[in-house]
Amino acid sequence: MKSPRIIVTDPTLRDGSHACSHQISVEQIRRYATAAEAAGVDYLEVGHGNGLGASSLQVGLSLVPEREMLATARACLKNTGLSVHVMPGFATANREIANAIEVGVDLFRVGSHCTEADLTQRHISYVRNAGKEAWGILMMTHMASKDVLLEESKKMQSYGAQGIVLMDSAGAAVPDDVKQKIGLLADKLEVPVGFHAHNNLGLSVANSLAALEVGARILDGTARGFGAGAGNAPLELVVAAMQRLGYECRADLYKVLDAGELAEELFAENLPVSNSITIVSGLAGVFSGFAKPVQRAAKQLDVDPRDVFVELGKRKVVGGQEDLILEVASELAARKKHNGAASHK
Amino acid sequence: MKVAILGTGNIGTDLLIKVLRSPWLECRLFAGRNLSSPGMMKADQLGVPVSSKSIQGIAERHADFDLVFDATSAEDHRRHAKIFSELGLLAVDLTPAKIGKMCVPAVNLEECLREENVNMVSCGGQASIPIAHAIATANKDIEYVETVSSIAARSAGPATRINLDEYLCTTEQGIAAFSHCANTKAILNLNPAQPCVHMQTTVLAKIKSPDLEKTRVAVAAIVLKIQEYVPGYQLIVPPMIENNRLAVMVRVEGRGDYLPKYAGNLDIINCAAIAIAEAHAKKKAAQPTAANRIASSHEKPTHHRH
């Protein structure tokens, strides 16, 4: 049986925002968007790492205003759709979504923490009423069982979501988890199901292929894995592996490889690497976007960033709770000082 | 002072417990729509007069009280506000309707006593506005103020979830009004972790040249002031500078009256509502009417401390 064509979504210019502390420039957007259009990815996602309206002191201020980022990408895209990430709690319908519609965004990927899908109801309806495409995104999916994920994605489907993507935001999943969760959703939902990987445990490509194997029809990948933490599934590897396994997609392998080369040049200083911090982060199950702020706070307060991740994991923090990094690091610093003082007595 | 509570959901019922504890307030009517709702049954058990006729019940019995807490919805309060005004009732609005003056007791209690209708902003607003205000009094050239609240997912009911955008806008307006900084942003996170997390609020500010020492003094002073009416309000990260931003973090543990302790977000807005109602009661008691002269010859109740 011939498998259906896979929809490839490329959030290089959105997830990659985390990798460079939200300093993606207009020039980088213009050059990469042009390459993505040529590569033939179905959607290019652009914006702040936490999506619309998330440029903030909490998560990090974007170098380029949201509207300008989107307009720059829009001007470079023709057959590739322009997509944005939307998290209710950061973005409002009347302000940020309305603006994005005005700039010409095609697809709104409205996300929530994996157990809080009802937060997306208004935003998904708003997008659909405006005649645009909306998908539901469940984030941090390692924190919920497959049955809970099914229930939450059914809610999003009932609000009008035309696709559901499970994000392994912490890079904490192994292929068996992905098969169980994606398999159930692909079986029970009416809309196509997708997967978004992070590479903290080095499993981003394996997890993406596991998702395809059990029926995923949407796959996220970023050029050279340019994304939060240890990065995403590298787009060039995913597309190559899909070709090897006989999955069809609109993207052209050589052009995707070219986009990867370009990304290597454009984002040279911030390409994600696997290191002890990203590994501990994955094991602790903490949102990959915390990598940079944790390293910064740990350095300032002179504590081990790995301890910060372990403590954040114990607290079951979710995406958006970056302020807790400061609290946890301050607490660890105070404890360290106290222990140091005690040992000198 | 005799009061009524309109709305018998979680907020209304928690308010009732707080009113019953207050030495200054007496609940003369608990009005809603459904006599068999958990809140209504609780009120009945506690011997409080109840009505299922909602605003009509308030209108019929309005001579029995001077002040109404409205814990219904923004849409309903827009209708109710006019009726309260016509009946000569003071209104403390816990919905996001924003008809009356925004009231944050630690900052503008006195001014609010002149208003017939006050609005309690939002839970995140009650936690963050006093801090933003303290930062504003201690620093010049504040470019931007942001507030982030994280609350337990279980403390956010369907109304909160569907009205997330309104919450953000209301909180941003509140921060702007009290910090005199036009450029503000509010963020809300729901955390489903078990056991449930306490409400935490962070205030972040961009200031050209922050005066950290002065900010610390101002924040410490306002925290003491808030603790007078919100006993579970704690400063967990005193003002610090990190990555070119000023950060202050507080946690709110609820009293666990009707709602569980983790629901500090609901507790703080109710505590603030009680504070303004008690202030009205004290003001009324201080007016030299014949009845009060007799009352004042007895020992005055002291403000409850916890």
Going across the biggest sheet of chain A, name each strand in turn: 1-2-3-4-5-6-7-8
- Into which percentage range does the β-strand content of chain A fall? 5-15%
Corresponding CATH architecture of the largest domain in chain A: Alpha-Beta Barrel
Q: Give me the strand/helix succession of chain A.
A: EHHEHEHEHEHEHEHEHHHHHH
As for the number of domains of chain B, it is 2
Q: Gap between N and C termini of chain A, in Å?
A: 74 Å
What's the average pLDDT of chain B? 92
Strand elements of chain A, count: 8
Helix content of chain A: 40-55%
Oligomer: heterodimer
CATH class of the largest domain in chain A: Alpha Beta
Helix content of chain B: 40-55%
Mean pLDDT of chain A: 96
Helix and strand element order of chain B: EHEHEHEHEEHEHEHHEEHEEHH
CATH superfamily of the largest domain in chain A: Aldolase class I
Low-confidence stretches of chain B: none
Number of helices of chain B: 11
Number of domains in the coordinates of chain A? 2
Using only C-alpha atoms, the radius of gyration of chain B works out to 19 Å
* Chain pair forming the biggest interface: A-B, 32 and 34 residues
Q: Per the principal axes of the C-alpha atoms, what is the gross shape of chain B?
A: globular
Keyphrases for this structure?
heterodimer, A: 345 residues, alpha/beta, TIM Barrel, Helicase, Ruva Protein, domain 3, eight-stranded parallel barrel, 14 helices, 12% strand, globular, B: 306 residues, Rossmann fold, Dihydrodipicolinate Reductase, domain 2, seven-stranded parallel beta sheet, five-stranded mixed beta sheet, 11 helices, 24% strand
